[in-house]
Amino acid sequence: MDILINTPVFGITLTLIAYFIAKKFAQRVNTPLANPIIVASLIISSVIILGKIPIANYQAGGDLLIMLILPATICLSVMVYENLSKIKQQLLPIIVGSIVGAIVSIASILFFSQFWGLPPFLQRSLLPKSVTAAIAMDLSLSLQGTLSLTIMAVMITGITGALLGPSVLRLLQIKDPVLQGLALGTSSHVIGTSKAIEMGPIQGASSSIALFCTGIITALILLFIY
Which residue has the higher pLDDT, 176 or 89? Predict the structure, then answer.
């Protein structure tokens, strides 16, 4: 058993099993709180803590899975292509909305960082919070932020958007599928997009476009500022 824990196979296997269990649980329990990413994270954390397993042992395999983030994100373009005829008339509003969303996200971090007096490294680590992890990690390194803090911020942003996004959309009576996808993709990147895909193909396609646009615009703005 110790030999297995000391190999990358442990981190990969634990992640896959935890996510499989989380997906099954989410299918049985019809509640937004049963988000597979949250449940899988709790399972993995519990195993590591209760088993007193060094986090480095898990990361040996987990880091290999991180390499799949970029190709997995690119695969979203397939959904965009399949539904392009239905949303191409809305491309301009989606792009404009993504620009506004990126600006608001960056401005809010800059404002609250100044308001609470956060140190520069923390501010730079939080700035890419609303873009997909594949882009956020590179931005964090370019901005000389702390990678672990950036990943944590990205995860919290995505999970919060996936949990609260549908309720906020209902509260604001936003029923247009393109606008629903735009809101989720702009504010909560891939995790929000996965929720948009559950809501429907149009929501998933518009969220994917917003995800890409927000990532590119955020990168351009931050690299220009710094």
Answer: 176
Which residue from 217, 210, 195 is spatially nearest to 90, judged by alpha carbons?
210
DSSP assignment of 46-76, as one string?
HHHHHTT--HHHHHHHHHHHHTTHHHHHHTH
pLDDT band at 4 (very low <50, low <70, confident <90, very high): low
The proportion of the chain whose per-residue pLDDT surpasses 70, expressed as a percent, equals: 97
What is the dihedral angle through the alpha carbons of 91, 166, 188, 98, rounded to the nearest 10 degrees?
20
Distance CA 95, CA 11 (A): 38
Q: Which two tokens stand for residue 134?
A: 């594949």
Residue 164 corresponds to which tokens in the numbers above?
């609260």
State the angle between helix axes of 133-142 and 201-225 in degrees (0 to 180), rounded to the nearest 10: 0
To the nearest 10°, the Cα dihedral for 45, 51, 57, 59?
Answer: 0
Residue type, 126: L
Beta carbons within 8 Å of 207's beta carbon, 6+ residues apart: 181, 182, 184, 185, 192, 193, 196, 197
- Cβ-contact 109, 116 below 8 angstroms: no
Domains of the chain, by residue range, sit at 2-67, 79-225
Distances (CA, A) of 11 to 24, 25, 83, 160: 20, 21, 36, 25
Cβ count near 150 (within 10 Å): 25
Q: What is the token pair recorded at 112?
A: 């609250």
195-219 per-position pLDDT tens digit: 888 888 889 889 988 988 899 999 9
